[in-house]
Amino acid sequence: MALLLAAALAATLPLGAGAAVKITERSKQKQAAEAQRADLRQKLDNLKRDISQTETEKDNASDALADSEAAVSKATRSLRDLSAEQKQTEAKLAKLAKQHDELSKTVVRQQNQLADLLRQQYVAGNEDRIKLLLSGDNPNRINRDLQYLGYVSQAQARLLESLRANLAAVEANQTEAQDAKDDLDEIAQEQRDQKNLLEKEKAKRATLLTQLSSKLASQRKEAGNIQRDDQRLSGLVDKLAQLIEAQKKTEAAAREKLRQQQLAQAQAKAQAQAARERERQRLLEQQRAAQAGKPPVAASSPTGPTPAGPKVPNPDAIDDDQPPPVAAPATPAPAPLARNELTPEADSAYGKPFESLRGQLRLPVRGDVMARFGSKRGDGPSWKGLFIRTPEGSEVKAVAAGRVVFSDWLRGFGNLIIVDHGNQYMTIYGNNQALLKRPGDAVKAGDVIASAGNSGGNEQSGLYFEIRHQGRAFDPLGWVTTR
């Protein structure tokens, strides 16, 4: 009988019931994340247009590479994100498999216990309470047997309920496992698509480089081009700083408004609680006065005392001698940080202040420093940062904690990423092959944010690196450790 019951319950388990739902949910989550970044991306696109609209130069060879280099960066970042998602999903699948084994063992054990209980009840003659009461046996024995039957019934009910819960957990586990497998299939397909796209874009870029090589070489040597590139980057940094400051003011105003609203709500709640407590005390005084034969105490009003007749005590009032504590207004928590914000509410959110890290930073990539801050660039202006020669694809790491405020292609610097470290300190990483972080992403010191390359028409593979404070560049080597 128990086995039949367990089999009937187990037969209700559908396999893979939620697979399609999970795929749809995953797609929705990706679309929601993209929509969340859209506003920030629009602001940054507007900044780029503002910087470029004053330029009369149209025929720049590196511009022909812009779309291809940006596509290579995007495909590389997508592959990296998919690889991380695949590892997380595989770990989740392994965890679900372990849970499934444990649940299956529990279900089998509970089925056996239920079978033993039913068997024992059957062997005992399956006596019910009515038979025992009418048996005419010793009342003490009848009472003992009735209690025993009650215990058995309770044990059976608990066991059945636990068995049902575990069978439902097995069903949920199987559904979730199937969803995870479907996720892996979807991720694998996306990886294949992105790899094909990456290979096509790399081939396209190689063809363009071959066609434009002589033109790129001549334009790299033109002092006017170098100066315009430097002005373009400086303009971008200045506008980003303005945007960050404006956003900080907006966020501070919104937080203050929320704080005032929460404070007003807390005060209103405290006042209402105090009024209820006064009313409770008045009712208690009325009751005591009625018992002592004294006239009842009238409720006070803002316009003065008003005579009050007999009043029926509030049945919902608290009827003890200990009044409930009046809650003090709670200090409201600051508004939560939106995911696509450019900067946290305070510079301390980055950890240590950036200015305290002088002499402790590490260069963002391993390689040879080929150009130093202040050295001349042919007939053009001096270098405002470092060029570190390193193989294509080398990991570029954030030198300190901060938030990405720009991650896009910019003429003269290729795939460029800028990290804000608070207090108007920024680090700049240019000529990357791929940008692995998006605007709004928080990073820690040592996080991989890009891979080195030669985008933007650079002749050597490497990384261009700057540190700026209040828009002014200074020598990064004075901030890095030699250890």
Automatic annotation (TrEMBL):
CDD domains: M23_peptidase (cd12797). The keyword Chloroplast does not apply. Pfam families: Peptidase_M23. Residues 275-285 have a biased composition (Basic and acidic residues). InterPro entries: Cell_wall_metabolism_enzyme (IPR050570), Dup_hybrid_motif (IPR011055), M23ase_b-sheet_dom (IPR016047). GO terms for molecular function: metalloendopeptidase activity. Residues 383-476 form the M23ase beta-sheet core domain. Residues 269-338 are annotated as: Disordered. Residues 23-120, 153-204 form a coiled coil. Keywords: Coiled coil, Signal. Residues 1-19 form the signal peptide. Residues 304-313, 323-335 have a biased composition (Pro residues). This is Peptidase M23B. It comes from Collimonas fungivorans (strain Ter331).
